[in-house]
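Hi there,

I know you've been waiting on this one. I reran it after we fixed the sequence typo, so this is the corrected version. Both the input and the resulting structure follow.
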Amino acid sequence: MAQVEATTERIISADAETVFDALADYENTRAKLLPEHFSEYEVREGGDGAGTLVHWKLQATSKRIRDCLFEVSEPTEGQLVEKDRNSSMVTTWTVTPAGEGRSKVVVTTVWNGAGGIGGFFEKTFAPKGLARIYDAVLAKLATEVEK
């Protein structure tokens, strides 16, 4: 089993604190940021940053639907880590200042991929697909906080 990793990033015209607060707001803002690949979004505990427990289904392809139950932590300032209780998937959101009134958001997802030929295809194609999905999230995030 090889580790699979997908990363995408975006510069957003809003300060880092505003961007981080929007990402950490699972109760209200986060649901607005999710494209059509996400369904059954539900906050089960908390709702603001660390201590949140959030559920959704992620449909990465027409055949691949992942049932996710994420525990959220904030290990360092400007960082949200979502660990899936149902798999090895971990998504890390890092928000840093990027000049006057701007911030850089990097989202990285890692998981243990399948073995064999299926694992080869997963490692080859899944990161690009997931990066496209998270690029859509970051575009909606930018629209939300750049108002």
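Quick highlight: The chain has a mean pLDDT of 91.

Best,
R. S.
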